[in-house]
Amino acid sequence: MGGATGVDGDVVAFDYYTYGGRSGIVHLSLKDPQDEHAVGGGTYHRAHGSSVSHGKVAYQDMSRVGLTATYAWTTRVADVATGEDRAVQQYDGSTSLGPTALNGTHVFWLLDEGLDANATTLRRAALDGSEVADLSPGSGPDALNAYDLAVSEDAAVVGTYLPDTVIRNESTPKLYQFAANGTPGAPGTRLGRVSCNRGAQTGASAPGGSQVIWLDSTTGRTDVVTRAGPTGRCG
Asked: pLDDT in tens for each of the 235 residues of the chain?
């Protein structure tokens, strides 16, 4: 098994790994669990970073082009009902692709194009691949080193951390929130930190509106914590 399992009504999507470490994704209906739809898991075709919402499954795909040594890297959205599987964006092999997330109008994902050290882009696109926008840039003073992602209709939440040689407040995982329909760089798009707690903040979920639920270790134990909206600036 791979990472987290996504559930949308009776549709379940999850990542998996073969014994050889080759990644793939599966989505199926709980009404007919034997009818699995698998992508990747092979030597020349792999997939990861799946998410499911509103009858769609998003994922990252790596496929060999023909019999050449060239590979196509794409962010894709599949319609569970119709079987349509659409490429939202394609990249060269130097781009590292992270998790995806969906709401009713857009697909979101993390990627590292090597623009800056320890920096990840939060990208958004309409479900048909149009209107591509970066809510959080992959370089510059506002860039974040993000590794986890959750969205609702109103907000996108990313889990971030700063690589460090010692464990301290600044280097433990923190959560940032963005307006899901925000305009890149505009006031009100980057909503700031979800919480100013000093401990690690991980495993975020975005159940609706601006609410966030996460695991917080500030007290020295792991607590389930929720806020109705972000704190904003800390410090």
From this structure: 446 689 999 999 999 999 889 999 999 999 988 889 999 999 999 999 999 999 999 999 999 888 878 888 999 999 999 999 999 999 987 899 999 999 999 999 999 998 888 899 999 999 999 999 999 999 999 999 999 999 999 999 999 998 887 778 778 999 999 999 999 999 999 999 999 998 999 999 999 999 999 999 999 899 999 999 999 888 7
Asked if 160 and 174 touch (Cβ cutoff 8 Å), the reply is yes
Give 126: exposed, middle or buried? Use CB within 10 Å, 0-12, 13-18, 19+: middle
Long-range contacts from 39-43, C-beta under 8 angstroms, 24+ separation: 41/16
**Whole-Å CA distances, 221 to 5, 144, 200, 217, 226:** 25, 26, 10, 5, 16
What does the block give as tokens for 109? 């994902």
* Cβ contacts of 163 within 8 Å, gap of 6 or more: 118, 145, 171
pTM listed for this prediction: 0.94
The DSSP-derived string for 3-34 is SPPEEETTEEEEEEE-TT--EEEEEEETTEEE
